[in-house]
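Sample intake sheet
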Amino acid sequence: MVPVGLTLQPEEAYLDALAPLLDEDADYYEVAPETLWRRDAAGALVPNGFHKLFLERRERTGRPFVAHGVGLSLGTSDDDDPARLLAWLNRIRDDHRRFEFAWYTDHLGATTLDGRALTLPVPLPMTPQMAARVRTRLTHLQTVVPDVGFENAVFYFLFGRPLDEPAFFRAILTEPRMHLLLDLHNVYTMGRNFDFDPNDYVDRLDLSRVIEIHISGGSDSEPAWLPSRSTMRLDSHDGPVPEPVWALLERVVPRCPGLRGVTLERMEGTVEAGDTALLREEVRRAKRIAAA
């Protein structure tokens, strides 16, 4: 049976509210390593308090950890701030020595451009040159963690058509032990915002490369945000998994021969009274689908 994991968020309220679920129902934990670091007085990346807390959880439970980074910046050239890349890889290396990550993925996009950190990843031109750049970045990461990959992201503009993304992914993932983290809520969100059928998108993917699947909820933007008062789907991880995402999960899981985990995501600051029971049922529903 494919295991089902949960995200560990660096927030005490989140960890306290979901403690029974994390202790009893999660088969593994997913962390964003960058949220476990801080910069010391000299500017070096060092562990923060949650780093120690999550290590204690690993020792206590014996459950595996997987890493889903947010800042390696897969679309950034190696010539753009190489000192940052080296510092990032060294910090990941130390974390991997302690957590023994089963695999490591990051978001497909650029989070650093011209030495400046961006709040969210920006999309990449879907060209052979950019595919080679991302592949080189993943090769660097493989010197630390053998199994690596990227996640299909949510963007609000693209350099190309959304249904061209699967071919771009194929062009990147040509080497052994390079994988796709397939985020089904992201596919659903992009389908809503760009008006395409998520099933068409999934059918174009090389599902043999999928190592992990993400499921989550989201919300719609406020009408007041845009002059037209139109709304867009947000990848906000702040609510129940929508039924179309469950339908995608049921359809996709049997077609992913290399699948090693299904992760339910929830953001810190979004867990309210009554959510624990909902999230427990979502984990168990995911396990039923994975078992079937």
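Comment: The domain at 4-291 is CATH 3.20.20.150 (TIM Barrel). The longest helix spans residues 82-99.
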